[in-house]
Amino acid sequence: xxxxxxxxxxxxxxxxxxxxxxxxxxxxxxxxxxxxxxxxxxxxxxxxxxxxxxxxxxxxxxxxxxxxxxxxxxxxxxxxxxxxxxxxxxxxxxxxxxxxxxxxxx
Length: 106
What we know:
By secondary structure, the chain is an all-alpha fold. It is built from four helices and no strands.
């Protein structure tokens, strides 16, 4: 269950990272409210997941999910470049996430 919570926390991290783009420096009310709510949910789920997942592993995976999800969102919806170098770097982050999961032992 902790791994599911961690995955959900990472997805909400993507939500608040993307939301920051739409807050316009926190000057737009609803995007700011939704971004803040995503932050709270993400951190709450991360906190719950870290009850049984080692801190370093959980935090690294949480940020990795957020990073990969945000990059993919940028490529798909914001027309950011999908260069070979960027995709290789994302693949390395994914490999690190999978490696940490495999060696975590929980």
